[in-house]
Amino acid sequence: MKVKRALMIILGMMMSITIMMGCTEENGKIEKENGKIEQENGTGEEEEKGAEETKITAQEKVKIEDYSLLDIYDIDINADGQDESIALYTAAETDQNGEIIWDDGQNWSLIVHGQDEDYVLFDQYVQIGSIQFYVFTADDIFHIVTMQNTTAGLKMVEYTFDSDNGVFSQKTRYEAPGNVNMLHVSRNQF
To answer: For 37, 57, 64, 143, which has the most beta carbons within 10 A of its beta carbon?
Structure first.
């Protein structure tokens, strides 16, 4: 039941973002701050011009001793029979009771830990905000999606795993344009 509710929340967020993006569409073209999105060869598929797809390769194990673990999810991503761990960390310290001591900003990291190697998907300073991650499969493709919300922005990034090449592909799916003033972020717990 919890999985079903989580999927409904994720689908709702994705639909909301799709609707927000579609509201600016005119004659099959969308103007965006980072370039144009145009229909490709009449297929109905849209491709963002200028948006880069970044490949993230495995690296040696990452040292995370000074970071606080916020969330972790174990799953066999590369079908080798052993689970990898998808872990979200922050550089914010903890007090003697283990509670996070939040500052106006801190570094956040999202790392996929394998047995002998790691994939660093996200490693950035986030000013007055947070990162959430979502793990799912769609059409047999493994996805990790991050939502970064701050008082001045909203960004959705998709990471897909290419099992043939052993790399993650990273692509920004949405980034709020202009001078954003975040008014509210829901705190749903499930």
So the answer is: 37
The last residue of a domain, from among 51, 68, 93: 51
| End-to-end Cα spacing for the chain | 10
Kindly give, in sequence order, each residue whose CB lies less than 8 Å from that of residue 149, ignoring residues fewer than 6 positions away.
Answer: 129, 130, 182, 185
d(CA 114, CA 132): 21
Q: What is the dihedral of CA 7, 77, 55, 170, to 10 degrees?
A: 10
Q: Do 77 and 13 lie in a common domain? A: no
| Pairwise CA distance, residues 163 & 141, whole Å | 10
Dihedral sign for Cα atoms in the order 178, 123, 165, 144: negative
Which residues have a Cβ under 8 Å from the Cβ of 4 and sit 6 or more positions away?
A: none
pTM of the model: 0.72
115 shares its domain with 88:
yes
- CB-based contact 121:159 (threshold 8 Å): yes
Domain of residue 83, residue span: 52-190
User: Which of these, 63, 68, 76, lies nearest to 99 by C-alpha position?
Assistant: 68
Annotate 134-173 with DSSP letters as a single string: EEEEETTEEEEEEEEEETTEEEEEEEEEETTTTEEEEEEE
Q: What is residue 9's three-state secondary structure?
A: helix
Q: Give the Cβ contact number of residue 19 at 10 Å.
A: 9
Could you report the per-residue pLDDT of 9-28, keeping only the tens digit for each? Answer: 444 454 444 334 443 333 33
